[in-house]
Amino acid sequence: MILDPIHWAALGVMGPLLAGLVAMEGRPRAIRLGLLAGIGSSVAATAGLWVAVSLDGPLRHPLGGWGIPLGIELYADGLSVLMLAMTALVGTAVSLYSTAYFGDISQRSVRDSPAGRGARFFAPLWLFLWGSLNGIYLSGDIFNLYVLLEIMGLSAAAMVTLAVTSQATVAGMRYLVISLVGSMFFLLGVALLYIVGGSLSMERLATLDLAGPLPAIALGLMTLGMAAKTALFPIHGWLPPAHAAAPAPGSAILSALVVKGSFYIIVRLWVHVFGGGAREGLLVLGILGGIAVIWGSIMALRQLSLKRLIAYSTVAQLGYLFIMFPLLFPAGGGWSPDAWSGGLYHALSHAVAKAAMFLAAGSMTYAVARDDIRAISGVAHRLPMTFFAFGLGGLSLAGIPPSGGFVAKWLLLRSAVEQGGWGWAVLITVGGLLTLAYVLMVLRYAVDQTEEPEAFREVPRRMEWAAMSLALIALLLGVRAAEPLSLLEAGGIVPWR
Amino acid sequence: MTPLALYTAAGVGLFAAGLWGVVTRAHLFWKVLGINIMGGGIFLILLAAPPRLDPLHADPVPQAMVLTGIVVAVAATAVALGMALRVAARTGRPFLDEDVPNRSAGEDDPGSGRE
Amino acid sequence: MTPVLDWEFLPLLVVLSSFVPGVWIMFLREEQEALRSSLNLIGAVAKVVLVGLMLRGVGAGAVYEWRLQVLPGLELSLIGDALALLFVTLSAVLWLVTTVYAIGYLKDSPNRTRFFSFFSLCVTATTGLAMAGDLFTFVIFYEALTWATYPLVVHRGTPEAIQAGRLYLIYTLTAGAALVLGAVWFQVEAGTVAFAPGGVLEMAAVEEAPVRFFSLFLVLLAGVAVKASFFPVHGWLPIAMVAPAPVSALLHAVAVVKAGAFGVVRLLHSLFGIEVAWEMGAAGLVAGLAAFTIIYGSIRALVQDDLKRLLAFSTVSQLSYIALGVAFLTPMAQTGGLVHLVHQGIMKITLFFCAGVLSETLQVKKVSQMAGVARRMPLTMLAFTVAALGMIGIPPIAGFLSKWYLGVGALDAGAVWVIPVLLASSLLNAAYFLPVIRTAYFDDPDPEGWDDKGRSRWFEADWRLVVPTVVTALLALASGLFGGIPWSPLGWAELIVDRSIL
Amino acid sequence: MAGLATTLLALAVGAPVVLAMAWPFHPLRPLAVRLSPWAAAPALLLALVHLVDPAAAPSLEAPGLFLGLQLGLDPLGGAFLLLTALLWVAAGAYAWWYHADDPHRDGFFGLFVLTMAGNLGLVLAADVLTFYLCFAAMTFAAYGLVVHKRDGEALRAGRIYIILALVGEVAILSALFALGTAGGSLLAFGPEVAEAWSRLAGEPGVFPPPEGLEGAYPWVTGLLVGGFAVKAGLAPLHLWLPLAHPVAPTAASALLSGVMIKAGLMGWLRMLPYDLAVPGLATVVIITGAATAFYGVLMGLAQDDPKTVLAYSSVSQMGYMAVGVGVILLAPEVAPLALTAVAFYALHHGVAKGALFLSVGVGSRLPRPSHHRGWLWTLRLGVAVPALALAGAPFTSGAFAKSSLKDALSELGGPWYAVLDPLLLVAAAGTTLLLVRFVVTLETRIGGGAQEGSAASAGGPWGLVLPWMTLVAAGLLAPWWLATAFPPLGGAAAPSLLQDLLPALLPVLMGVALAWAIIRRPKVLGSLRGLRIPAGDLLVLLEALLRRLRLPGRSLANQAGWALRRGSLRLQDAVQAWLDTLARRDPRLMQSPLLGSILLALALLLAVALW
User: Residue C62 falls within a domain, yes or no?
Assistant: First the structure.
């Protein structure tokens, strides 16, 4: 059948949301159905858009006729498709994992017990989240972004509190507050931009001359809000407890995907709408990112809770994403494609690897019933596959070849060296070593056979396989990097102006 | 002083006040309230947006935005209050306690959805 | 001569021949011993056969290339030329031998599945690294090697093993990071990372910014020097001795240290080009560093009582012969360096095999326990003697040839200072090897000190331990005794230098 | 004939090599051991063939082996081969019975053939590296023979031996590096070596020496001389010799003193540049040689173990030969004559010294003299003949060799002759004295080993006596076959034995008279008993010195190491503690007032940046 490719986009957004509604019903069958629908729609949408975009560049579709100049529209280019693909990839694995993770909830009694609530509400929340993420990647105007951000924030915060512990609740609440405040900042920025530019379409805004204080303030506010949601360095404190407290699949989603949503918006704003903005602004972002790399890694090194460690590593890895900004627009003017591909490829490979790690960590804690590094001794022998999944994910994170992380790091390094940005180059290298340090700390406990864990629960194969497959993909990303990156280039001219 | 400037100033003031509340007030209810006040400030600014097409008719877009915004805000507030209540129920106090032990998360956190 | 196979994917097959068994074994159960061993052996034999095919082809002048694009401008490339084959053949042959040895050494010990899996992966990385056609591929396999060997180092799982592994990783990973940085930098400077005979840098470009290029060289050198165990960064090697004997053998003779040494060769010859390297003083630096390491390692070895530690320090010293040789411009010196890559491998693996046989069969781990051990283990100690004398440089064992070529080559290059270094190291080698031999043959044994596992039917110990040891010892003897024929390591090294594909 | 010679050439080296290779394999070992004593037979045959037909000069090349092995037989080689093969056969047979019931017999013969392979190989080697290869093989295998007894004394001797041997090897190798650089790896003896030397020396104005080797020429020659001097036992590099020769089993001592030290001499004769004078070095060599000739005698007199006495006599005898070598280096025109003389000397000394050493073994294995007078007199006769030869009594090979050396010196003439001739005369007298000393010490030992080593059980001492007698006879005949053997070497025609009867007789008489005088006077004898110099004279002082030096260095190093380790550990702890506090503080970043200020700060920062 011949479809206007943009319908794929609509499918990508609406599919998961509707599937979420189905899953709300709560019985295992409904949940499975919903997840299947969500997976199907997202994968289909991604595939369709991938083909379409790589064939004939970016796509636009005015929703309900509100086109340019108002521009309430769907927009898809290489970047969007890459993020969609990332979401679909990780999402599928996590969905499969979750079906095994929450155990059997066929009896109503179990479903309604506090423990069962997690099992019951995970799927719908996740599907809403999925829909909103796809929406964010596909929306072409900033107000839609706000709405979708709110959906994302609410369902994400709720997902944290699925774990029925006081810590989880507090962490979730804090997360909610932060993300609501962040959205408010964003909305204020939107308002100011509209007043200045009279349009909401990012493409339209990009064509305007956004000089003067007001746009600058708007950009600053939006960036601040999104930085808070992305847990950029000084505002990162909410992330570790939240991501650590959520049930494992939730942690994977939060760390791998949700933070990328707000990061994506920052990229759109700085690169596309503002075409680099001011060099100093880029530097600020980069420096904060740099600090995040070091700080997050050191914090991770000092954790004893496995999931908290991984969460802190997320803080550090997000720092890498921000290092991209100053590299994108070299001091001498111009544009560094290496930094562009490198940064976004890092986003992609981080998503895959981090999800693999969290899922693996989930399996470990699931097996030993404790979220403590010291408790996982011997896991390497009981759960070799999980162990390898965690290891491979970690190595990809640290940029050990062959892995997506390595390719990303290579590109970032190259752009840094080309611009003579030795500080950045050293930072990237050192960050990699620190990453290794905490990954190895975990592995070292896992191989330790001196003390046997007292209680050891069998882990469903599906969980192990889900984590392993993600890890292998992270590995594969290091060997076939050409295709995804070519997609990035296919997505029209970068930046727009 | 143009109405836009006036409204904008007022809006920003509200925004700041709300933020102040969110940050300084420990009680969750105040925080939620603060967020709503911030939203209110933004809506004020939007409504003051100058007519874009012709000076007689107001610009429908900001109004649409405000309406949507209010809907979203209501939903968010609901969720937030609900969660605040649960916090109160779980910890016994409607605050975001900071003294979550850091290096010993292992003891009281099974780390997965079962208990 | 029969027509040569021109499969360009032969290099890939060589790599896969150990990769596939490695991965497969990883998913076997502990008790599937027969399958595991046969997988290993099949892989090893297959690799030897494939390498044999390539040898014949390359001998006839063919070059095998296999490429896979990763990014525009970056590709995985495996190239089987004479230089690569020198190293590949070494690892293929020694892997086969070591596999047999390891099967015997680890019989009924835990975690063999993991062990053999990574064992194969380790060799995969080594062969890949040997045939890497550009720096990018080299880096990938170089790092992969680190990860493949780590589980082997910590195999025992004891606290000191873990500790040693930790140190090993700290050293090698830092080096790896430096190597990556250097590689990227090199690509930016030179526009390519492909290895080319005679280097890819123009003299003019280097002379414009000598400081920049020298620091670039230093970064890359730091990357490879750790595995090559140059003086300041050799610390991991002796400590990695906690690993089981086959691992130490592989680590010290073939895989890790040779990767480093080979890296030095690539760095000097394929990236910078030896002339350029001399011009900018880099090669001189390497030569000096190597010379110092040679002496230093030998001196440290003097005071060791633990046999394996002694061997480790001897490796530190012997390894630098390679760097020393290839750092000179004269063909003879380069030949000496290259051929020592093989010679040191064969001799050192023999020594470690012997150490393994002793510790496995008699629980003898220290030199002081070896009194009269030759009466209980004549063949083993004979092998040990041959290898040790070879290390000292006694003709006609392989070691002498390397030394001869190095010495004459160095004098050709007018570097008289090398001679005292070589001779001093010979004397020091003698000073720590001969006492071992003496006590093994001429002191009175006290069997109470031994925990004797007993003889096997035909041999003084499990045949899977003794036969490989003897075989490698004979190889060491043969490659010296038949150094004159073209297929000997020496002949092949000369071929490499003559074809000037260094 | 040529074909046969070539075959024998291959066999001469091949036989011992094959046996050595077969030895490690258990099934083959008994056979190998059984054949080992006779492994030198082909070599002996070859030598005889060469003796009969000096024209037969077989040669073999194996370019594939090592760096290209070259074997060949030239007059000089022929002469040494005769000696070497003869001694090896005799010693082999002797050892077979001597070690009849020695638990370590198999091991002994394993090393025996290996040493033999090296020794014969270096005699037959036709190029530098082959020579070096065999030389090294012999040196290291001989270590096993030295320490055969495995007692502390033997092991000490072995240690000294191997250390000095290594120093020698290294010196030689370094010289060879230079030669190889000048002339390539494959250097056949004769013209090619000479070529390499001249290239190394360079020709002022014509062509320079290789770059980096300017002025290296004297050093290289020096290293070569020094390196071989260790093996030849030239003072002060002789330290190992008086230790090693006595402790080794008798057969081995005979070989060590008879042929192996000649390998050093062989090295000199093969590799030194004859046609370019090296006056400085030559002077050194001659003086050292002469000094050694005396030194050996003096030290030897202070020993009371017959074998040690013999060892020292070897040292002094090698001194004579060194003088000959010095002459060669000093004056190329005298070279042929001196060469002949040295070769004579080597052969004569080898046979005689071998016979004497064997006689020691025979003596110790003899049943108590009280009831075997026959044996006793045989022994005394058998000792007298080689002893006289060594002393250089008329009508013996000794006289023959000494006179030819003297001829060389007189040919050289000048002050050298004036000084050296009387000196050597005195030294010869000393040799006689030394031999008397030997006989005396030997008498005390007769039958000493009879109980423990039961040669009687092995069918009477015949097994020992026959080989010994063979050597004695050979020594007796030496003058005559030497004369026939040597013309090819280009030396002067064999001097008639009558012409210098007196000069030959003189030193012997002097020596005997002196000995008689001493023995007659118990007081003098007693006072002489007082001075005992331990074997390996200077060595004792050296060892004491080293012991002093070693200790402090090591302890210092250890302390430094420990301090370093402690420091690093403390640092680690401090850093970790600090990081922990950081980690504890991190969550506070979310606390309300702090968060507020952070947001504010960031806002300001961005504002400033974006303005």
Answer: no
Single-letter amino acid, residue D455: A
C485 is a domain residue? yes
Query: Once rounded to an integer, what is the mean pLDDT over residues D467-484?
Result: 79
The number of angstroms, rounded, from the C-alpha of D194 to the middle of its chain's C-alpha atoms is 24
Determine the structural domain holding residue B66 and report its residue range. 3-91
- From the CA atom positions of chain C, what is the Rg in Å? 21
Name the minimum distance, in Å, from the CA of D567 to any CA of chain A: 22
- Contact by Cβ (8 Å): D78, D50: yes
Q: Look at residue D484 in the predicted model and tell me its pLDDT.
A: 60
Q: Is residue B42 one of the residues assigned to a domain?
A: yes
Residue D498 banded pLDDT, cuts 50, 70, 90? low
Question: What pLDDT shows up at residue D540?
Answer: 76
Query: Per-residue pLDDT tens for D262-272?
Result: 999 999 989 88
Phi-psi region of C51 (alpha: psi -120 to 50; beta: other; left: phi over 0): alpha
User: Nearest CA to CA, how far is B54 from chain D (Å)?
Assistant: 32
- The percent of residues in chain D predicted with pLDDT above 90, rounded, is 28
pTM of the model: 0.89
Inform me whether the C-beta atom of residue B40 falls under 8 Å from chain A C-beta atoms.
no
Reference A255, options A175, A368, A375; nearest CA is A175
* Cα of B85 to nearest chain A Cα, Å: 10
Asked if the Cβ–Cβ distance from A154 to B86 is below 8 Å, we say no
Residue C300 lies in a domain: yes
Q: What distances in angstroms separate CA C297 from CA C231, C253, C428, D450, D540, one per listed residue?
A: 8, 16, 10, 51, 31
* Nearest residue of chain A to residue B92 (CA atoms): A166
Contact yes or no for A448 and C162 at CB 8 A: yes
Total domains in the fold of chain A: 1
Task: Report yes or no on B108 lying in a domain.
Answer: no
A399 vs C187: CB contact, 8 Å cut-off?
no
The CATH number for B25's domain is 1.10.287.3510
Q: What is the pLDDT of residue B108?
A: 39
Contact A433 C173 (CB under 8 A): yes
Q: Is the pLDDT confidence value at B103 over 50?
A: no
DSSP collapsed to 3 states, D436-505: HHHHHHHHHHCCCCCCCCCHHHCCCCHHHHHHHHHHHHHHHHHHHHHHHHCHHHCCCCCCCCCCCHHHHH
> DSSP assignment, residue D188?
B
Q: Which domain holds residue A369?
A: 284-497
Q: What is the pLDDT of residue A452?
A: 66
* Residue B104 within a domain: no
| Closest residue, chain D, to B31 (C-alpha) | D592
Report the complex ipTM: 0.86
Segments of chain C scoring below 70 in pLDDT: 1-6, 501-502
**Does B68 sit within 8 Å of A370, measured CB to CB?**
no
> What is the tally of helices (H) and strands (E) in chain C?
21, 2
Residue D448's pLDDT is 61
C-alpha to C-alpha distance for C302 and C313, rounded to whole angstroms:
9
Q: Is the CB of C396 less than 8 angstroms away from the CB of D133?
A: yes
Distance CA(C31)–CA(D75), nearest Å, equals 71
Per the domain annotation, does C365 fall within a domain? yes
A365 domain residue, yes or no? yes
B to C contact (≥3 Cβ pairs closer than 8 Å) = no
Structure tokens at C130: 């040997």
Domain count, chain C: 1
Nearest CA in chain D to B102: D584
Query: What is the per-residue pLDDT across A3-36, written as a single tens digit (0 to 9) for each?
Result: 677 788 889 999 999 999 999 888 888 999 999 9
Probe site for chain D from A177, A178, A217, A285 (most D CB atoms < 10 A): A217
Average pLDDT of the residues of chain A: 88
From the number of C-beta atoms within 10 Å of its C-beta (0-12, 13-18, 19+), residue D419 rates as middle
Number of domains in chain B: 1
- Look at D603 and A284 and tell me if their CB atoms are within 8 Å: no
Segments forming the whole domain that contains residue C446? 281-502
